[in-house]
Amino acid sequence: MTAIGTPENPLRVAVVGSGPAGFYTAEHLLKNADLKVTVDMFDRLPTPFGLVRFGVAPDHQKIKNVTRVFEKIASLDGFRFLGNVDVGSDITLQDLQNHYHQVCYATGAPSDRRMGIEGEDLQRSHPATDFVAWYNGHPDYRDYEFDLSVKSVAVVGVGNVAVDVARILCLTEEELKKTDIAEHALEQLIESNITDVYMLGRRGPAQAAFTNPEARELGELAGADIIVKPEEAALDPLSQELVEKEDDRKLRQKIEMIQAFSAKEPEGKSKRLTLRFLVSPVALLDDGNGGVGGMQIVKNELTRTDDGWIKPRATETTEDIPVDMVFRSVGYRGTPIADLPFDDKRATVPQTNGRVTDGGGGKQIPGLYVAGWIKRGPTGIIGTNKPDGYETAASMAEDAAMGIGFDPNNTSIDAVDSLAKAKGFRPVSFDEWKRIDELETERGLAKGKPRDKFTRVSEIIEALGK
Ligand code: NAP
Question: For 72-122, what is each residue's pLDDT tens digit?
Fold first, then answer.
């Protein structure tokens, strides 16, 4: 087979999705000295950066500085951003196969996992991911409604998303105003009546999924006291044994921090954030009008499975907690991509080193690749996408050298523009995004915040003037 990626036959790659995984994959391809390559990065939205823009909490501006790295990648020769193009509707996989040798999907895990309990679909029971997207100004969630007039909220799960949601609900007006939280969310959070937030972990402190720096912030909130029951902060014998056996400094620090929270006297702040362990929701209770009016939880104990997993097991002891709203924060979930195989159990696309296969351990489907959460599942921090994207890019480069890919009939750089004209979609370039970035920053400056986001696609296109 003829090698692709040579000066005579440059490799044309389409990356679908402009979050961290997409950018790191593009970087590794574009910096490969042995490869002559151009990368077109598509995003359904006119703005790049995926979860860095719509997932990272608005009060975590430092984490967002990673966009500087992505900007450098975008300035590499051969890179092009095509925002506001929905692969699957504006452009089909067949169109991409006509114009590119390889396509890498880095579209993340856009849905959420369910708890599978009675009452889960009552009003005021929401996926935490919807709330996160709403307060971060994601256009798809702009008109979602969250009734923040309630007093008491439960966040199910103790991962970093749960921590973000609980913290955002507890921040003071002063703290919120300094963030780049979407204006519509800021207005409603300032007016919120919420005084009590419960975070519910089904296992113990030693199994809490949150990371230490994130959890530490919960103990430093200006407007909320942290409350942990001492008996729930204490380790059960199984966890105690594991902690003693494993030499894990971070885990010990996490447990110490949680135990320090439990020893803290409340200072009478206006809100209370109660962190519970070893409890699982059993049912959401109807308030009589189809809304959440409480939650029944059951006390758990821990057991170990044959393969060593520490598992929660329900006891006979139940308790009702007085909550009027619930955010389930039990993990994101991947969704099937048109024309690609899908492993429903793992909610990922089956792959080997980023090469899409026709089932777990199955044959490679030449030309198709995945990176990020749709490849490995919704775990890890932004930096985890670097080795992940690099692995996929290395597979793509190896395959190109062996001539493995699609057989496009028109690899001209203008082909997408012609398609856009013919099909009537309007790609947004990286330079145009930079203009939006400037406008958002200017608008933010006027309000004393780092950025005031546009939250509707139409506003963005209008601001671009065409
Ligand atoms: P996660 O870290 O996987 O946490 C999910 C939580 O939900 C865990 O506490 C899990 O408990 C719990 N859970 C799952 N099923 C449950 C059930 N049926 N009932 C009760 N609890 C249940 O997921 P995430 O919080 O969505 O975060 C996704 C990824 O993004 C993570 O890798 C996270 O670190 C990362 N992230 C990082 C940051 C940051 O660095 N600042 C911010 C946000 C997100 P078990 O452990 O018992 O399963």
Answer: 999 999 999 999 999 999 999 999 999 999 999 999 999 999 999 999 999
Together in a domain, 79 and 67: yes
Report the predicted TM-score, pTM, of the whole model to 2 decimal places.
0.97
Domain residues for 70?
A: 11-110+334-428
Tell me, what CATH number does 81's domain have?
Answer: 3.40.50.720
Q: How far is the CA of 20 from the centre of ligand 1 (A)?
A: 19
Q: What is the DSSP string of 268-324?
A: --SEEEEEE-SEEEEEEEE-SSSBEEEEEEEEEEEEE-TTS-EEEEEEEEEEEE--S
Interval between CA 279 and ligand 1 midpoint (Å): 15
Q: For a substitution probing ligand 1, which of 61, 200, 202, 210 has the most ligand atoms within 8 Å of its CB? A: 202
> How buried is 8 (Cβ within 10 angstroms: 0-12 exposed, 13-18 middle, 19+ buried)?
exposed
Best residue among 238, 301, 330 to mutate for probing ligand 1's pocket (most ligand atoms within 8 Å of CB) is: 330
Which residues does ligand 1 sit against, CB inside 6 Å?
115, 156-162, 164, 201-203, 207, 209, 214, 280, 329-332, 378-381
How many structural domains are present in the chain? Answer: 2
Q: Are residues 348 and 302 in the same domain?
A: no
Please give the Cα distance from 181 to 57 (Å, whole number). 8
In a domain, 250, yes or no: yes
> Which ligand 1 atom minimizes the distance to the CA of 332?
26
- The preferred substitution site among 160, 275, 310 for testing ligand 1, maximizing ligand atoms within 8 Å of CB, is 160
Same domain, 125 and 263: yes
Pair 293, 180 in one domain: yes
pLDDT tens for each residue of 1-27: 688 999 999 999 999 999 999 999 999
Residues 354 and 262 in one domain: no
Structure tokens at 331: 């993990």
Closest residue CA from atom 11 of ligand 1: 157
Pick the last residue of a domain from 289, 313, 332.
332
| 193 shares a domain with 87 | no
